[in-house]
Design goal:
The chain is α/β, with parallel strands linked by helices and 332 residues long. Helix content is 47%, strand content 12%. It has one domain (6-328): TIM Barrel, CATH 3.20.20. It has helices spanning 15-21, 27-38, 40-58, 60-70, 90-109, 126-138, 161-170, 192-195, 197-211, 214-217, 236-245, 273-283, 303-308, 314-323, 325-328, and strands spanning 6-12, 74-79, 115-120, 143-146, 149-150, 153-154, 173-176, 222-225, 265-267, 288-289. It starts with 5 loop residues before the first strand and ends with a helix. It comes from Streptomyces argenteolus.
């Protein structure tokens, strides 16, 4: 059987979400925080960059043409992380996730053989999570996308336990994609908010899931970490040492932290073939999935070429290119 090429990190822009939250209390403060975190130089570049790419994120025909040019057969499409809106109250948050789930499903339904979708859940309101994930699955979506934390809550928060249980039982995919870094103004120049902030947030969030025992309690959870899991997979030795040397570090999880890397899926978007090789060595070739961050400028225009540059064996190349993702997405 021919192995499809599957990109698990691609985004859809949903203007109807922004129309929904426009003018609501809390939006202005959230945008001010985002502006402080990124800095004026980054915002001056990001605005035109996103506007130029809107057709690729909203028009299915344009998306498919771009996929053809990349040699990608199937995309797993998730909403732009700018749609999280974790500042929203319960009423607004419910409207946001319902609209995001329905709009993403409708986008993917225009090319069902080539597009699979992920929805959103409001991490800021744990009481809504089970209902929100159920709604996403009811729309035919494969799971949901979440950030690395919500205001005042880490992913280790016990309030999330029903959500993890439901996701595990349903076989839902959980795509961990950070948006914003709490280092704030320390990263407001040279686009450090993204280049340093994103991999930091990935590492912190995954560490919370590992050290708190979430992955012990939910061994069947299908978690995909964007950006190759950030700094954690290539610096996991420090975590292993702390787990062995300190009672506080080892109190929450049953096994060596590095062993949990083989329970997590990672996308291949690390921008360096040597780092990709190290990720595969740490997690296993069967836990790495092709990812491009389509169509943003911090992604790669040729994800298959970037994978080829790692000089993997044929078996490992085909596994990462699509063999690992195909069963996760239940591709025929």
């Amino acid at each position: 059987m021919t192995i499809p090429t599957v990109d698990v990190h691609a985004h859809v822009l949903l203007p109807e979400i922004e129309a929904l939250v426009s003018g609501l209390p809390g939006l202005a403060a959230a945008r001010e925080l985002d502006a402080r975190r990124n800095g004026p130089d980054a915002l001056a570049v990001s605005g035109p960059m996103v506007r130029e790419r809107i057709p690729r994120m909203t028009d299915v025909a344009v998306r498919l043409a771009a996929m053809d040019a990349q040699g990608v057969d199937v995309q797993l499409v998730s909403p732009s992380p700018s749609h999280y809106h974790y500042w929203a109250d319960e009423n607004t948050a419910e409207k946001v996730y319902r609209l995001a789930n329905e709009a993403t499903a409708a986008h993917c339904a225009r090319a069902p053989e080539r597009l699979r979708g992920l929805g959103l859940v409001p991490l800021q309101h744990p009481v809504l999570l089970v209902r929100a994930l159920g709604h996403a699955l009811d729309q035919g979506l494969a799971g949901v996308e979440i950030s690395s934390h919500a205001p005042g809550r880490e992913l280790s928060d016990p309030a999330y336990e029903p959500f993890w249980s439901q996701a595990e039982e349903a076989g839902a995919l959980i795509f961990l994609h950070p948006f914003g870094c709490t280092l704030d103004e320390r990263l407001d120049r040279w686009y450090l908010s993204n280049t340093v902030g994103q991999p930091t947030e990935n590492a912190v969030a995954l560490s919370h899931l590992i050290f708190s025992g979430v992955l012990d309690r939910h061994p069947g959870l299908k978690l995909i970490a964007a950006h190759g899991g950030g700094y954690l997979p290539t610096h996991i030795g420090r975590s292993d040492h702390a787990w062995s040397a300190r009672t506080d570090a080892g109190a929450g999880c049953a096994h060596l932290p590095s062993s949990y890397l083989r329970r997590i899926y990672f996308d291949s978007l690390v921008h360096d073939p040597r780092v990709l090789g190290s990720l595969i060595e740490a997690a296993g070739a069967d836990r790495v999935l092709l990812g491009s961050d389509f169509p943003f400028d911090m992604g790669v225009d040729d994800p298959v070429g970037a994978l080829r540059a790692a000089r993997l064996s044929v078996a490992d190349f085909d596994a990462v290119r699509g063999g690992n993702a195909a069963p996760l997405l239940r591709l025929a």
